Amino acid sequence: MTLRLHDTLSGETRPLEPLTPGFVGIYSCGPTVYGPVHIGNFRSFLFADILVRYVRYRGLRVKWVMNVTDVDDKIIRGAAAAGVGIGELTERWTDRFLTDARILGMTDPDVVPKATEHIPQIVALIEELSRRGHAYRTDDGSIFYQISSWPGYGRLARLDPENMRVGERVESDEYGKDDVRDFALWKGPKRGEPSWSTEVGEGRPGWHIECSAMSMTHLGQTFDIHTGGVDLIFPHHEDEIAQSEAATGKEFVRTWLHCAFLQMAGRKMAKSAGNIARVDELLERGTPPRALRYALISVHYRMALAFSDESLAAAASAVERLDNVLAALDSYSEEREDDPSLDDVLANGRRSFEEALDDDLNVSGGLAAVFEVVRELNRRIGARSLSTADARRAADFLLDLDRVLGVMSAPTRKLESDVADLLEQRAAARAARDWAASDRLRGVLADHGIAVEDTRDGQRWRRVGEPSRA
Ligand code: AMP
Ligand code: ZN
Fold first, then answer.
1. Nearest C-alpha to atom 5 of ligand 1 is from which residue?
2. Which residues, at least 6 apart from 405, have a Cβ–Cβ distance to it below 8 Å?
3. pTM for the whole thing?
4. Which residue segment(s) compose the domain that 179 sits in?
5. Is the CB of 40 inside a 6 Å radius of any atom of ligand 1?
6. Residues 158 and 243 in one domain
7. Ion ligand 2 — residues with CB < 5 Å
C-alpha cells in the first residue's frame, strides 16, 4: 500500500514517491497576516496538517514549512487603515494565528518563514530571472516577469494561451484569469509603502516571488509537495512555478495539492464576503476545540465543506462518542480470557483506515473505519466479553490512529472528571496565553492534590497527596 495523491498539475492521482527516500518536504502557503485567520483558512492548513501527520504515521520523515505572508498589498492597505506600521500589524496577527493553530491541534510546522526575513533570497531570485531574460524593469523601478518568455506558463491553471495579454502588465498581487499579463516580481518604491534598498533597487517584493524564494530556501529547488486552497492555483501558484522553474531550469514541485473551499451559508467563506467565523468567537460560544477541528477535517479535502451549526453539532457528538468509548475502555476491568476475535477487529480497522487515507487522504473514509471499530468495542464492552488487557489494547489502538486525526483525548487515567476538566481548562488557558487563568487553575488543582508542571512537552501532572476537600 502506498499513499496516492491527486496532483493538480498533471490531474493524476499518483503514488507519493519522495525525492529523497524516506523524507518528504512539504510547503504550505500560510496566512496573510493582516487580520484574523478565519476557519476557511484553517481548513487549508488542517488538511496539510493531516497530510503531514499521515506521512509521519507511515514512517517517513517530514519537513513541513508554512510561510507567513507579512508584506503584500492587503497588509499595506490594512496597516494604513489601522494607522500602524506593517510590522506591528503582522506581528499581532501572526501571534494570534499560531495560538489558534495550537488550539485546533495543528502540528507546529518545522519552519514558519516570514517574507520580510527573506528579502536577500527574493532579490537573488529576481536577479537570476533578469539574467536569464525572464524579467524586465519599468520606469518606476518595478520589475515584471515576462510570461511570453516561459512556454510552460498556464499549465497549472489550464489557461488558454490565446487569452494571454502579451506585453501588458498587471500590478496587483491578486488578479483573475481574464487578467493574464506580466506580473510584478518587484514593486518600485511608493510613498507610504514599506521598501527595502537592494541590488535590484529600492522597493518591495510582489507576493508570488515571496513563496518561490521561501519554499526553495527551506526545501531546495525541487521538493515533494506544495499545498494551498484552490483559489491559489491562479495566479499565485502558476506564477510560483513560472518564476522558480525559469530561474533554476528544474522542476519546482512534484505534487500540487489544493483543497476546496469551506462554505458558510452557501458561499465561500471570505473576509471580503463578510461571512467569516473565527476560532476565538466559536470557542466563546462554547464550541469544544476538538469538535471544531473535527468539523474542519472530516470532509475529503477536495470536496466543498459546508460549515454550519448543524455540522458543528454533528462533529461535537462524534468527538463525544470517541471520548466515551475511551473513558469506558479506561475504566473497564474484567478478569477473563482475552477475546480471541479482538485482534481481527483491530487489524481490519487499521487496514480500512490506512486504505482510506492512502486514497488521496480520504479522511471521511478513515473516520468511518474508526467508528466501525468503536461500534464493535461498545458492543463488547456492553457484553463484558473483553479482558482488562483487551480494553487497554483497544484504547491504545484508537490513540495510535489519533496520531493522524488529532481529535481524541487520552483519558487522564484514574483522574476524577472534575480534575481532568480543570487540567483541560488550564491547558486551554496556556494555549491562549492567559497566564492569570493558568495560575489560578494551578491553585485550584493544588487544592485537589494535583501538582502541575509545565514542560517542553506541555503540562504534566502528578498527585501530591489527598485532595483537600472530600
Ligand atoms: P490567505 O490568508 O488569504 O492567503 O489564505 C490562506 C489560505 O487559506 C490559502 O491557502 C487559501 O487558499 C485558503 N483559504 C481561504 N479561504 C478559504 C476557504 N473559504 N476555504 C478553504 N480555504 C480557504
Ligand atoms: Zn504562497
1. 31
2. 50, 53, 297, 363, 366, 367, 370
3. 0.88
4. 4-259
5. yes
6. yes
7. 29, 211
